[in-house]
Amino acid sequence: MNTNVVVTKTATFGGALLVVVGLLGFIAPGFMGMHLSALHNVMVLLSGVVAIYFGLMATQAAARSFCIVFGALYGVLGLVGFFAGGAGYTFTMIPGALVLGTMDHLVHLLLGAVFLSVGWVQKPATATPPAR
Predict the structure, then answer these.
(1) What are the residue boundaries of the structural domains of the chain, listed by start?
(2) Neighbours of 54 (CB within 10 A)
(3) 4 near 125, Cβ under 8 Å?
(4) Tell me: the pLDDT tens digits for 59-73?
(5) Separation of alpha carbons 127 and 132, rounded Å
């Protein structure tokens, strides 16, 4: 059987990183120059938990699909932030609750690129018939 360990490891470790950043955001809202409001931290934590689920509990095909969809969403969010952002590339999604800045956009683009490339590059897992 061909295993697709890269997608499952990427989802798991990427999810763990998101959980850590989400928790750090409550302690240091300006961590790495990001705008980590309470709502943003909750969104990051939820993203991390979902990524960990797909990395550890879902099938490899589901983990690959997750990487592609998750990467596309985060990548689009990063691009929208730069193109639709106002002064200093600040993009306000929910006034006072969810405001994204340049560093947020860069992190979203980086996450999107990593997850999307892993999902695209890794071939779907295929089952092979047992040897006789």
Answers:
(1) 5-121
(2) 26
(3) yes
(4) 899 999 999 999 999
(5) 15
